[in-house]
Amino acid sequence: MGHVGLAMHFRRDPNDRRKELTVSRFIEVVHKNAVASRNTADAFIKEMLHYNIAEYVAGGDGRTHPLQPTAATIERFTGWVIAHLRTLDHIDGGDRLARFLDRPDMLATLQPLIADGLLASKPVREPNQTFSLFIWLNNGGIVMDWLMSGIDPDHAGLERIPTSVVSIGDFAKWLKLSRTHLGRKLRTAEELGSIGWLGQRGHSVMWVSHGFYEEYMTVQAAKLAVVDTAFETCFPPSRGGG
Predict the structure, then answer these.
(1) C-alpha span between 202 and 180 (Å, rounded)
(2) Mean pLDDT on 107-123
(3) 186-196, pLDDT tens digit by residue?
(4) Helix crossing, 210-234 with 107-120: angle to 10°?
(5) Which of 121, 109, 114 is nearest to 85 (CA)?
(6) Does residue 205 have a pLDDT over 50?
(7) pTM to 2 decimals?
(8) What is the pLDDT of residues 11-25, one digit of tens each?
């Protein structure tokens, strides 16, 4: 939903009210693209306004109340783009990040293409069961990122891959999540065979299954492919010439 809202912001036309980012238009686009229900989209916008991730446009039409992401949100999203471009460069030795930093104004063109790609990506839109379980949890993506970041690459081929997580309470506290809610999600994942503990539950190292690890990597690879395709559209390779 965040990508949908940003794309609507960057594609807005100040001279065409039909292309403004408003609550009603956002809810309609989210629903039309089957991203979430109307109620979920409405609740999402309310949270974005509450936490100053989005704001009403000063001097906007009082009847439609156009919205925009705050400057801090744009800055954070730029960091998101930089992280993904840096990762792609590390994979193939490219120079995407340097090219983007030379033209940061291209963010307004790049992000909507990324949003379109994510909406069209089946691996991103329809991830497997365990990934889907976490993605609808507040900070669910960060939960999975933290689990996977603690994995020793040498252990990635194991059926039960050790992570760095031991205490559910500490894990929840670091993520600023309800321990009860996180624990419930972890228990469901455990019932699916996707996670477990090497010893006593909640008091030993947590492991993730090889299948869950592959689910996560599949989604990340698909997301990077979307970013790469969008980037190459915005920054086509220069043709050699004399």
Answers:
(1) 13
(2) 96
(3) 888 888 899 99
(4) 140
(5) 114
(6) yes
(7) 0.86
(8) 988 777 667 899 999
CB atoms within 10 A of CB 233: 12
User: One-letter amino acid identity for 90?
Assistant: H
Size of the chain, expressed as the number of residues it contains: 242
Three-class SS string for the chain? Answer: CHHHHHHHHHCCCCCCHHHCCCHHHHHHHHHHCCCCCHHHHHHHHHHHHHCCCEEECCCCCCCCCCEEECHHHHHHHHHHHHHHHHHHHHHHCCCHHHHHHHCHHHHHHHHHHHHHHHHHCHHHHCCCHHHHHHHCCCCHHHHHHHHHHCCCHHHCCCCEEECCCCCHHHHHHHHCCCHHHHHHHHHHHHHCCCEEECCCCCCCCEEEEHHHHHHHHHHHHHHHHHHHHHHHHHCCCCCCCC
| Token pair belonging to 100 | 């983007």
Contact between 66 and 84 (Cβ < 8 Å): no
